[in-house]
Amino acid sequence: MAFVVSRSALSVSAVATPSGKRAAASRVVPRAALNDSAPKLFRASGADAPAQAAAGAPAAVATPFDDYRFAPIREATVSRAMTSRYFKDLDTYAEADVVIAGAGSAGLACAYELSKLAPDAKIAIIEQNVSPGGGAWLGGQLFSAMVIRKPGQAILDELAVPYEDEGDYVVVKHAALMTSTLLSKVLQAPNVKLFNATAVEDLIVRDDAVSGRRIGGVVTNWTLVTLHHDTQSCMDPNVLEAKVVVSTCGHDGPMGAHSVKRLAKLGMVDEIPGMAALDMNAAEDRIVANTREVVPGMVLAGMELSEIDGSPRMGPTFGAMFVSGQKAAHVALGVLRRRQAQEAAAKAATNAAAEALAA
Ligand SMILES: Cc1cc2nc3c(=O)[nH]c(=O)nc-3n(C[C@H](O)[C@H](O)[C@H](O)COP(=O)(O)OP(=O)(O)OC[C@H]3O[C@@H](n4cnc5c(N)ncnc54)[C@H](O)[C@@H]3O)c2cc1C
């Protein structure tokens, strides 16, 4: 009788044999090769194994993975490993220091810079897509290369992303190489949590004596829920309070420029002129120069800025997105420290009043 290693019925596929016939690709392991102490293998039914051998399946190629065995686990353990951590994160980041809306090139660069500048800060990234990275997985028109004008290549040097130096600009052979490297650094930072497949649906707006009208956080929902509010009833959102929100939702589109459009509806900014026609030279400098706190508690960066400022689009050149994100991190840190000082002063005043009352 032969032993057949099978992960699941789904993993069995048909392969062409030298004779041109098709046969199941199950691996046939000689009895002598089996280690008695190893976990029991699936034993093929007596009817199946000879049939496969007879079908002329090719001889198995030896690989370093032939005796590979995973440690045992219960299904409930897998479930709890995920859910306990996710719900702990939701609890931790219900009061975030910084929320970054949108994990495109600007949002990721902001998270990366901020995680270095403020290791004490709790930074949450909310990304509506399952896959973070926004438009930075490709260059223009779905081409692979990413063009970055100097001196924007400094972040590539810092992350050790290789590029070709073309004088005034550099080229990374795959935009995905830069985006995946940046993303891996962000996700490794102990003070950053990415909530993907989650959309920012609205903003928390506060109005108090100390800070006036300001952004105090974001309203979120699973993106799949956000997309179905018109077909389902009453699917209430979740909220994350934040001392500062950085919005990097990209230019206008089905989900883009979300925060800018909401600020306009709330009357917190004037009319949105929208992104102007393409001018690479003007566009990148404008985006970096204009990266700022647009209303108290909200910093804007990346292409979302072009919507509010009417600045030109830039096409497939990415330096401004990274540098705008990095600049936003410094601006956000200033807002965070200001807010922390306000809260500390308010707490001290409350304590002093309580002490005076008690005396
Ligand atoms: C058709 C097309 C044309 C383009 N043309 C230009 C151009 O001319 N010039 C140019 O500079 N760029 C253009 N881009 C985009 C280009 O990819 C960007 O330059 C660059 O990616 C912008 O970086 P960003 O970080 O500002 O925004 P993006 O890379 O767009 O990232 C924004 C991120 O925010 C997420 N997001 C959006 N809304 C929400 C929300 N409500 N909640 C949570 N997450 C949200 C998105 O899923 C995305 O991951 C174009 C893109 C497309 C698809």
What would you note in describing this structure?
- With 359 residues, the protein is α/β, with parallel strands linked by helices.
- It has one domain: 3-Layer(bba) Sandwich (FAD/NAD(P)-binding domain).
- The chain is built from ten helices and 15 strands.
- The protein has helices spanning 48-54, 75-93, 105-117, 154-159, 175-188, 223-226, 258-265, 280-290, 304-309, 319-358, and strands at 3-5, 14-16, 22-24, 27-29, 95-101, 123-127, 146-149, 164-165, 169-172, 192-196, 198-208, 212-222, 238-247, 292-295, 298-300.
- Strands 5, 6, 10, 11, 12, 13, 14 and 15 form an eight-stranded mixed beta sheet that branches.
- α3 crosses α10 and α8 packs parallel to α10.
- The longest helix is centred in the last third of the chain and has 40 residues, at 319-358.
- The model is unreliable at 1-49 (pLDDT under 50).
- Flavin-adenine dinucleotide binds next to α3, β6 and β11.
Strand count, sense and barrel status of the largest sheet are:
8 strands, mixed
Tally of individual helices: 10
Structural class: alpha/beta
Task: Point out poorly predicted stretches.
Answer: 1-49
Separation, N- and C-terminal Cα atoms: 90 Å
Q: Give the cofactors and ligands.
A: flavin-adenine dinucleotide
Number of domains: 1
Please state the average pLDDT score. Answer: 87
Molecular shape: globular
Q: What is the H/E string?
A: EEEEHHEHEEHEEHEEEHEHHEEHH
Question: Which CATH-level-2 architecture?
Answer: 3-Layer(bba) Sandwich
- In CATH's first tier, which class applies? Alpha Beta
Q: What is the fourth-level CATH superfamily?
A: FAD/NAD(P)-binding domain
Write down how many β-strands occur, each being a DSSP E stretch of 2 or more residues: 15
Estimated helix fraction: 25-40%
Radius of gyration: 27 Å
Percent of residues in beta strands?
15-25%
| CATH fold-level name | FAD/NAD(P)-binding domain
